[in-house]
Amino acid sequence: MCFYSNIQEMRARHKDAFLKKHNLKLGFMSAFVKASAFALQEQPVVNAVIDDATKEVVYRDYIDISVAVATPRGLVVPVIRNVEAMNYADIERTISELGEKARKNELAIEDMDGGTFTISNGGVFGSLFGTPIINPPQSAILGMHAIFDRPVAVGGKVGTITANVLAARR
Q1: 3-class DSSP state for residue 95?
Q2: Is 79:66 a contact under the CB 8 Å cutoff?
Q3: Cα–Cα distance for residue pair 85/78, rounded to 1 Å
Q4: Helix pair 88-103, 5-22: axis angle to 10 deg
């Protein structure tokens, strides 16, 4: 369980200026993507892969985050490339572009290949909890779930989101 009120407050405080400056809506997913990139930089082993041939751990010097997108034809997982070098506007723009391509059924294999970490947000469907599936050869996935009030208060504020990170033991 993580406290979501800081992200809600940040978005509420900056969404109008962000829209005016970038002509993009400031969503919550960009915060999850950026936070994941920071975490992966702090813990590079989670962003690593085991080479099938040598059985050695290969550390990547880039972060490519796969983001699950629901479409009328099913779930697809396009990749946001080089997230470590992106700001919030870059991330929002890329999410928007990939989402549009997904809804139009115009994603290429290259758009969905090579992610180093995945974020799945079942919360948009009201999911309260779930266990997302790790996409091999990735070593971890972040599963986000619905926001709802619980009898937990910190600083007089209530509002949490269930999130889980699964890691492969290889």
Answers
A1: helix
A2: yes
A3: 18
A4: 80
- Is the dihedral angle over the CA atoms 21, 22, 27, 33 positive or is it negative? negative
Under 8 Å between Cβ of 83 and 63: yes
User: How many domains does one find in the chain?
Assistant: 1
- pTM listed for this prediction: 0.81
**CA angle, corner 41, sides to 62 and 135, nearest 5?**
65
Q: What is the CATH number of the domain that holds 142?
A: 3.30.559.10
Give the tokens for residue 75: 């779930």
d(CA 47, CA 62): 9
Q: What are phi and psi of 92, to 5 degrees?
A: -60, -40
Domain that holds residue 79: 2-169
Per-residue tens of pLDDT for the chain, all 170 residues: 455 678 888 999 999 999 999 999 999 899 999 999 999 999 999 999 988 899 999 999 999 999 988 888 888 999 999 999 999 999 999 999 999 999 999 999 999 999 999 998 765 666 666 777 888 888 888 888 777 666 666 676 666 666 666 556 55
Which residues have CB under 8 Å from 58's CB, separation 6+? Answer: 48, 49, 50, 51
